[in-house]
Amino acid sequence: MQYSILEVVQLQQDFPNLSLFRGSIGTVIDTYMDPHEAYEVEFCDDRGATVALLTLRPEQLRSISNL
User: Fold this and answer.
1) Alpha carbons 19 and 31: distance in angstroms, whole number
2) How many domains does the chain have?
3) 59 and 10 in contact (C-beta within 8 Å)?
4) CB 3 within 8 A of CB 31
5) How many CB atoms sit inside 10 A of residue 20's CB?
6) Is residue 39 part of a domain?
7) What is the tens place of the pLDDT at every residue in 34-65?
8) Do 24 and 43 touch, CB atoms closer than 8 A?
9) Binning pLDDT at 50, 70 and 90, where does residue 32 land?
10) How far apart are CA 62 and CA 34, in angstroms?
11) Pairing outcome for strands 50-56 and 61-63
């Protein structure tokens, strides 16, 4: 599945070393198609401060923009 910039997504994999877990909400801030499809996703705390910026494969994400 292709995601768009500023699309809201849900993490489908745990990253305990970053305190990010399945279900965490992030925003796509960049897309990559070469050499493989991947997405730069920003995860923020309740105050809006960035807690992590990850490059993720599409299968590690799920769109929640349309829910």
Assistant:
1) 23
2) 1
3) no
4) yes
5) 18
6) yes
7) 999 999 999 999 999 999 999 999 999 999 97
8) yes
9) very high
10) 21
11) unpaired
**pTM of the predicted model as reported, rounded to 2 decimal places:** 0.91
Domain membership of residue 25 as a residue range: 8-63
Question: What is the 3-class SS of 38-63, one letter each residue?
Answer: EEEEEEECCCCCEEEEEEECHHHEEE
Cβ within 8 Å of residue 7, ≥6 positions away = 27, 28, 63, 65
Residues 64 and 60: their CA atoms lie apart, in Å, by 13
Burial class (CB in 10 A: 0-12, 13-18, 19+), 52: middle
pLDDT in tens, 13-22: 999 999 999 9
